[in-house]
Amino acid sequence: MSTTHIGVAVLWSLVGLFVILITATAIYSVLKRTRPATDFTEIGLRIRSWWVMVSIFTLAMLLSRVVSLFFFAFISFLALKEYLSIIPTRRADRRVLLWAYLAIPLQYFWAGVEWYGMFIVFIPVYVFLFLPLCMVVVGETRDFLRSAGTLHWGLMTMVFSISHVAYLLVLPPAGDSGAGGAGMLLYLVFLTQSNDVAQFLWGKSMGRRKIVPSVSPNKTWEGFLGGVGTTTLLAVLLSGLLTPLSLPLAFVAGLLISAAGFVGDVTISAVKRDIGVKDSGNLLPGHGGIMDRIDSLTYTAPLFFHFVFYLYY
Amino acid sequence: MKFVHRVLRYLFYRVIVRLVVLIVLGLNVRHRERLPAKGPAIVVANHNSHLDTMVLITLLPARLLDRIRPVAAADYFLATPRRAWWAQNIVGILPIKRQRDQPDEDLLAPCYEALEKGHVLIFFPEGSRGEPEKLTAFKGGIAKLAARFPTVPVTPVLLHGLGKALPKGERLLVPFFCDVFVGETLYGSEDRDDFMQRLEAHMATLSREGRFPLWS
Q1: Is A281 within 8 Å of B213 when comparing Cβ atoms?
Q2: How many CA atoms lie within 13 A of A107 on its CB side?
Q3: CA–CA separation, B62 vs A116, rounded Å?
């Protein structure tokens, strides 16, 4: 197994992820023993799911770039499938949905061959124009707009947005960083996910004032601001290891990821509230479905990508 | 069952069907522990797709595979030689007739025999994938069968989404996550109406557990 394609800094960071997991598991075991009255079942399930997710992610990163691209394409597939399974769909659109699924391998193929021009217009232009054409050919006009609109929203968030994570991977090294695209990928994914955890922990421990009560009643200003602070601090600390960002730029990246992550989270919450489900699925015990886990990433991935793309490419 | 067929059947269900079910579809199974762990047993489900049988068989224990028999209409599944070979040797159906030839013929006789041998029957009381006119003819069948074997557990299962993935009359499989909700076991009784009411109540309880999006 050759791991030269990701670099030493990324390797050590992956080791760091497991150190964090071991620490979290240890804290959980101690808390469970010292506070038998409190129910830690959900936290336990969450940590166990984190072990599975981090292990698969690490393996996908270590094996090869192609495996990593397949991994993110598969995440998009699972997320789009979950989305299409919880929204109302029309029987007449069966074939159209198959075409929509087919956009996934193509979108990740453009990333794999580093065809940026096609990657960036394929879903927002070509797929956007093509799927309604398929629907017209089928000929069912009842709920036409609802169907075309919801389908495109799903493709934009679950496929187009998430594919930006994969495109980070194929970017050549920029500036004086040796970590390259894999470093920035890890930086983005780690900060997005740790931002979720930090917002959750800050909110649980000191949350008072609700921030968007009608969409997500558990989210508080304290959780949000605590998350922004923690994530921005981590962004500055990790920038030298994984990115070419200078300290002021890393500070901006931290603010961007933490704020965008929050928006992504509550946007998917609003969708779930609209549909009337609590979780998008049950693929990840303790978390819910795959959409519940990558909700923040649907906002942070394209925004962080274009931030570094503007600066260095 | 011939050894070759057993091997083919094992490969079909434990490898091909399993991969399709896991990767292309994806299942949301609730109360899986309520599924029977040994025969004889009867699994009862609503029926919307050819996938229904496939999914239920992959969820039952692998060691039972040789004894799992989906009860299926002989007139449809034995219609052509190729389909009959496939249905009988790989899918492993228990063919039963839908029309009596003699007035005193008991159409469920093959089911009695299978249960006596300790087999696990998969039974679709709707009789067909979404043709309501056939519902009544089979509706009573399950009550009759359960009444004859009052110690055999009947496990109701509610399936949702498989009819979206592969409805009747379609060849293309479209990926969807599918719900499989397993209900509490019930047993047959002499009072068949009472049994049917209990069965329907179990199914109604299961359908309240999920929130199924509109599909039309």
Answers
A1: no
A2: 32
A3: 48
Relative to beta strand B94-96, strand B68-73 is parallel
Q: Which two tokens stand for residue A155?
A: 């493709």
β-pairing, B68-73 vs B41-45, is: unpaired
Give CA–CA dist A231/A199, Å, rounded: 9
Smallest CA–CA distance from A288 into chain B, residue: B28
Mean pLDDT of all residues in chain B? 88
Question: What does the pLDDT read at residue B130?
Answer: 63
Which distant-in-sequence residues (6+ apart) come within 8 Å of B79 by Cβ?
none
| Pairs across A and B, CB distance < 8 A | 48
CA dihedral of residues A176, A182, A186, A189 (deg, nearest 10): 120
Q: What are phi and psi of B102, to 5 degrees?
A: -115, 150
Does residue B212 belong to the interface with chain A, where contact is any CB pair within 8 Å? no
Q: Is-contact A220 A209, C-beta < 8 A?
A: yes
What is the per-residue pLDDT across B23-45, written as a single tens digit (0 to 9) for each? 999 999 999 999 999 989 999 99
Nearest Cα residue to B71 out of B21, B129, B117, B110:
B110
For residue B27, which phi and psi values (nearest 5 degrees)?
A: -115, 145
CB A6 within 8 A of CB A62: yes
What is the phi/psi pair of residue B75, to 5°? -65, -30
Query: In order of start, what are the domains of chain B with their CATH numbers?
Result: 3-209 (3.40.1130.10)
Model ipTM?
A: 0.86
Average pLDDT over residues B109-121: 94
